[in-house]
Amino acid sequence: MNRVPDENGRFGKFGGRYVPETLMNALLELEEAYNHYSKDESFQEEIRNLLHKYSGRPTSLYYAERLSEQLGGAKIYLKREDLNHTGAHKINNTIGQGVLAKRMGKTKIIAETGAGQHGVASATIAALLGLECKVFMGEEDMKRQQLNVFRMQLLGAEVVPVLSGTRTLKDACNETLRYWVSHVDDTYYILGSATGPHPYPMIVRDFQRIIGDESRKQIVAEEGRLPDYVVAAVGGGSNAIGIFYPFIEDADVRLIGVEAAGRGVETEEHAATMTKGRHGVFQGSLSYVLQDDNGQVLPAHSISAGLDYPGIGPEHSYLKDSGRAEYFPITDDEAMEALQLLSRTEGIIPALESAHAIAQTVKLAPTLDKDQIIVVSLSGRGDKDVETIMSKLGGAVDESH
Amino acid sequence: MNLIDTVFAKLREEKRTALIPFLTVGDPDLKTSLAIIKQLEESGADLIELGVPYSDPLADGPVIQRASERALKSSITLRDCIEAAAQAREAGVKLPFILFTYFNPVLQFGLEAFMELVKNKEISGLIIPDLPIEEDAEVRQLAEAAGIHLIPLVAPTSKDRVVRISQKAKGFVYCVSSLGVTGVRAEFHSGIDDFLATVREATDLPIAVGFGISSREQVERFSKQCDGVVVGSAIVRKIEESIPLLEVENTRAEGLKQIGEFVAGLKG
């Protein structure tokens, strides 16, 4: 496949920069700075050092033996992004962009957040690098994720409630962009997913590809060969593009993205952008979008706040339409089942997002031979979701002794 | 000749600055929008921007966002907005219509079908705020073929892009007065005068200024430097305030009158 994105920020036909003129120079400045620093050894060294000493990378590639045995098919390896500082892969990107912001001479950072994971990761890096931080969060999400709101505040960030539109992640993204337009001089926008206008999908991918780079080395060291499948959950798609990217040239490795089917793709309450969406322009790039016949963007639903988004990163659309990656929907209920299964067989409570990847693996593994290998991105840990899980399972907390 | 050019040529002769009000079509409903358009013309508007409601209006502040939400509640579509222009024309409105729409509704409609409809329904110009010059080649080509002006935005941050953008412009160049989204504000970008001078230098087309202009003083201030002044959020807010009057049949005329007085007051 050709090197993507091209100089116009296109992944095939997808991507681009569909933003108001008021933002164009900020994006061009960002692209120029990124192109410059990404070739700068001291910049890369600073990031490597933080990933290693601060976040605890490399994360392990763990052979889930009991899960593999229980499913009775392929060998399942879990890429343990949940072991990162702050509990998810999000920190890989915020470390990279935080250091970039500082090199660019910006003193303030802003970020959008849905469930709060990217907000916490941004607040964390802001504290570490001595930057001012504002996190835009939908009022609805603030109610649902009070603990993460408090975590961000504890880290010194200001959480700005977003009252427009759906009052969730989609509108938090809009509001962050709107704020950025008025404050481009001293403010850096740390976008949290592989979405948005060019150069963000490229930058986020490059900072997340460490997931795939490590997995590749680790599986070869462990098994002496590449995996047959790589599976990852997709909301905006940052952990998925991160683990897929280093395997894209390996035609025999099948890449499986797992999106949220919410209450079912046949209902109106899902976030199955690839299954039910169409090509469209949303939040700065051309990609698959959940939308009505008139091009109005539809609200998404998923039990997982991190997947509750009506768009997807443009590189995923490119991988889908070129046939290089496949995307499957998993319902709230299937994700909950998988979450419990992993908790009980391996002693790992996954994030609800990651539980979608596990659920697809539960379907896939039994169809494969015992000598085949699946690598699953366990993108985050489930601590943040315990309340949601508890209420979904009927509050069985008192039964635990 | 495109009606926008005709109007600006006439204004130039008369040494007048164009007043360009904006409204969101379908806020609060289509019938009222038509009445407001008529009222705007009677109150001294020279061109009108017809805003298409959108679920994710990135360039707009809270006032126009709320107008979009109100219009979308009654499922106003891009087609409705375009048809509204033709209906206003049938009702006797003479001034040029500029359709202000985000790109995705246009993309879903189909670019060619969209341009065909726009052409047939009395719309003279297009503003697509999330379609910068890097992305507008196909739309610009179709618009030119249809004789529709694709009006670009330039911002104080556009710097050396001003020349490139202005060279491709048709109709007029829309200068964004301040960094940020649409909405009433007391202060403009500190370099606004230099910026407007730069744009003036870069093009022979008329230049209009917009974003945040809400009072007679501000209209007068910019009339010296510009050929047109766009007033958006201030009018949309006035419409919002008048909704209780507009929604009741026997106070409707009073609501329209108040909007009209506000617009007439902008001109001095």
TrEMBL record, chain A:
EC annotation from Swiss-Prot or TrEMBL: 4.2.1.20
Necessary cofactors: pyridoxal 5'-phosphate
Listed pathway(s): Amino-acid biosynthesis; L-tryptophan biosynthesis; L-tryptophan from chorismate: step 5/5
Any one GO MF term held by the record is: tryptophan synthase activity
The UniProt entry's sequence similarity note says: Belongs to the TrpB family.
UniProt function note:
The beta subunit is responsible for the synthesis of L-tryptophan from indole and L-serine.
* Protein known as: Tryptophan synthase beta chain
Organism in which the protein naturally occurs: Paenibacillus algorifonticola
Automatic annotation (TrEMBL), chain B:
Q: Which UniProt keywords apply?
A: Amino-acid biosynthesis, Aromatic amino acid biosynthesis, Lyase, Tryptophan biosynthesis
- EC number(s) on record? 4.2.1.20
For this protein, the record's InterPro entries field holds:
Aldolase_TIM, RibuloseP-bd_barrel, Trp_synthase_alpha_AS, Trp_synthase_suA
> Entry's Pfam families?
Trp_syntA
Q: Which reaction does it catalyse?
A: (1S,2R)-1-C-(indol-3-yl)glycerol 3-phosphate + L-serine = D-glyceraldehyde 3-phosphate + L-tryptophan + H2O
Family (UniProt): Belongs to the TrpA family.
Q: What is this protein called?
A: Tryptophan synthase alpha chain
Organism from which the protein derives: Paenibacillus algorifonticola
